[in-house]
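ugh ok fine here u go
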Amino acid sequence: MSNDEKIYQKILKAIVEHQLPPGARLPEDRLSEAFGVSRTGIRKVLQRLALEHFVVIARNKGAQVNHPSEDEALEVLDSRILIEPQLIASLQRHWNKEYSEYFRDLVEDEHQAEHDGDMATQIQATARFHYELAKIAGNGVLAAFVEQLCYRSSLVIAAYGTRSSVSCDCGDHAQLIELLDQNDTQKAQQWMADHLQTIKHSLVLESQEEQLIDFQRLFSE
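structure:
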């Protein structure tokens, strides 16, 4: 794993585990000092996080952890509820044993992250399951849109979610795979809708006060 990737993973982990709360400023100089790398290296990582909507970079203001509004949080989940169940029929036509095995491996990654108490990896694994699933439906435009919605959902969960938002409390993805294996499109569509609704209802839509961040302590080895 490259140094940039390690820094990316550490900052992302801090965001989704609420150690860097929504709205927290991310000064390049302090992060550079904390990680012992150049500001250029930090800037590259922050730009990557900005592309994924975890960070906002404003001219003359620098970077800060993105803070989706309560309305935006609900709109992101509502958009997924409208789209993802409707993709089930299309992806069912492409479903096969190889896909079943592939997605079972993804579910194992989710379960391992949950067992390890690694919420950052769990959020990433859950998002990946959904957008990889959308890709096999055969509509590239919708798949790309779902991928962006999944990234934004990850931020919403980081801002307003709890561990139950990414745990089996909201439905084990293995259940969906079973339904797809059984070619039960209608039940698979209903499962997906219920699953996303449960995630939406797990959100705690409360604003948080700004916190002072000790980057040196947070990112020390």
